[in-house]
Design goal:
Chain A: Belongs to the MsrP family. Chain A: This is Protein-methionine-sulfoxide reductase catalytic subunit MsrP. The complex is a heterodimer. By secondary structure, chain A is an alpha+beta fold. In chain A, 18% of the residues lie in helices and 21% in strands. Helices cover 81% and strands 0% of the residues of chain B. The radius of gyration of chain B is 18 Å and the shape is globular. Chain B has one domain (7-199). The chains are: A alpha+beta, B mainly alpha. At the A-B interface, loops of A face helix 2 and helix 4 of B.
């Protein structure tokens, strides 16, 4: 049963080049209007319509989490520790103008403007998302394969890892300004290069047929569906290819609880709770309808990604 | 007016008001109005109220010594409310959250310090609740007071359990832990210092 509706393009909407180019003009006009609108925008305002072709790697048989829950139940500690904080406290955040710098061990370092990223051919991917706190969602992301971007900058042979960095703006992100030292800001994440190049790994610029709301990591975030949600770093400003394993925010905070790999694994518990099952978010009908469901190895993407970890002890490399 | 409000009536009102948050949250949760993750919201709220009533029950003695306000006749009600909320919290965890999956629950109790601390706090409160009646007080005599000092370690366990139940330190959890720490520290002050503190008000 469909729990909500969002603009889902039909197969006939897969855009021919001409229409696609005219979309840039439409988008530019939309953004200009959006900027004016943002100036006097209500708190938590966001999200222009954004069209995308259904991606071949989109999950099937998944029921999307209701839009309201996916955009109002968020972990984004830059805006506060409560799940409701990101939607309530991200109204002053400005996702425009924005650039993403891609550098490090690459032949052609580049700085991408967010509008150029939005103008790329975009796909919709319906993915499971599993949080390390043992809850889960299903989200229709809009984005493009990170591999496409990385190929453009031509990684050098010495590059083994990809480091990601979030924006640091304590004035706009109250959680970064907190007295409590929650995490080492800016938020940092990392992947092995082969994980980053995997076709399932995307940079998302939208969800549910819109650009990303501030609380979901506007304007561009990482989505790695077989890993716990905290690997999906939000509001990215820098991507750096490195030879050594980069630092990651949660691994720094509590290395015994949050590993570098963070692959969803029902057989390896978090020290404080079992990972064998999860609570799906947004089940309707109250808490008697909110039964747990079993967690799948690699969050259900084992067939596609288990090979990346052949021969590794996933209990040690958790 | 004041004379007509008998302690018994106030106690009854305290129970009714005290159980209100749980009733309202239960009704909301059962009808799908407790947010995106109703089980977690309900669980957190029940645990928080258990700790709040525990802290209130610990305030009774200092309040009498420092401010001269005697609420001793309501202390048992506050302690019992803490116990009921701890019981609801545990029941919600076992039934609503884990769906009575006893192998998982046993594994939790066996190896997770934060769950163990919560269990210890609950078991102590259950013991104190079971002996919160006149018959037990008479029966236990002087041992009753010693037994009910177990509320101090229970409050410690509950506060640490609360801190550890989140991924990071939170202002909220630290504030509750600080309240427990101050209330317990006050009790280890020598009587002379406590009297001076009371006189200097």
């Amino acid at each position: 049963m469909r729990l909500f509706d969002y603009p889902r393009p039909a197969a006939s909407d897969i855009t021919p080049e001409g229409a696609y180019l005219s979309r840039r003009a439409t988008l530019a006009a939309g953004l200009a209007g959006g900027a004016a609108w943002l100036a006097g925008a209500p708190r938590g305002a966001w999200a222009d319509p954004l069209r995308a072709a259904p991606g071949a790697l989109s999950g099937t048989g998944l029921t999307p989490t209701p839009f309201q829950d996916a955009t109002h139940y968020n972990n984004f500690y830059e805006f506060g520790l409560e799940k409701t904080d990101p939607a309530e406290r991200s109204g002053d955040f400005h996702p425009r103008p924005w650039t993403v710098r891609v550098e490090g061990l690459v032949a052609r370092p580049r700085t991408y403007d967010i509008d150029a990223l939005l103008a790329r051919p975009l796909e919709e991917r319906l993915y499971r998302m599993r949080c390390v706190e043992a809850w889960s969602m299903v989200i229709p992301w809009i984005g493009f394969a990170l591999a496409d971007l990385l190929k453009e900058v031509e990684p050098l042979g010495s590059a083994k890892y990809v480091a990601f960095e979030s924006v640091l703006r304590p004035a706009e992100m109250p959680g970064q300004d907190s007295m409590l030292h929650v995490l080492d800001w800016p938020y940092a994440e990392g992947l092995r290069l082969d994980e980053a190049m995997h076709p399932l790994t995307i940079l998302a610029v939208g969800l549910y047929g819109r650009t990303l709301p501030n609380q979901n990591g506007a304007p561009v975030r990482l989505v790695v569906p077989w890993k716990y949600g905290f690997k999906g770093i939000k509001s990215i400003v820098r991507i750096r290819l490195t030879e050594t394993r980069p630092r990651t925010a949660w691994n720094d905070r509590a290395p015994d609880e949050y590993g570098f790999y963070a692959n969803v694994n029902p057989a390896v518990d978090h020290p404080r709770w079992s990972q064998a099952t999860e609570r799906p978010i947004g089940a309707r009908g109250g808490f008697f309808g909110a039964a747990r469901q079993p967690t799948l190895p690699f969050n259900g993407y084992a067939e596609q990604v288990a090979g990346l970890y052949a021969g590794m002890d996933l209990r040690r490399n958790f | 007016m004041a004379r007509r409000l008998s302690p018994g009536l106030i106690r009854a009102a305290l129970y009714v008001a005290g159980l209100m948050p749980a009733s309202v949250a239960f009704a909301m949760g059962a009808t799908g109005r407790l947010g995106a993750d109703p089980v977690n919201a309900f669980l957190r709220m029940l645990g928080l109220w258990a700790l709040r009533f525990l802290i209130l029950s610990l305030c009774v003695t200092p309040l009498r010594e420092i401010a001269g306000i005697n609420l001793l006749r309501y202390r048992r009600a506050l302690g019992l409310l803490a116990f009921w909320y701890a019981l609801f919290h545990l029941t919600a965890y076992v039934g609503l959250d884990q769906g009575f999956d006893f192998p998982v629950l046993l594994a939790d109790v066996e190896k997770r310090p934060f769950v163990i601390l919560g269990m210890v706090a609950f078991l102590v409160l259950a013991g104190l609740a079971a002996t919160s009646n006149r018959w037990s007080i008479r029966r236990l005599g002087p041992r009753w007071r010693a037994l009910h000092r177990w509320v101090y370690p229970a409050a410690c366990c509950a506060a640490i359990h609360f801190i550890l139940s989140f991924k990071v330190l939170r202002p909220e959890t630290l504030a509750y832990a600080l309240a427990v720490a101050l209330l317990l520290a006050w009790r280890v002050l020598p009587a002379g210092m406590r009297r001076r503190a009371a006189l200097s008000r």
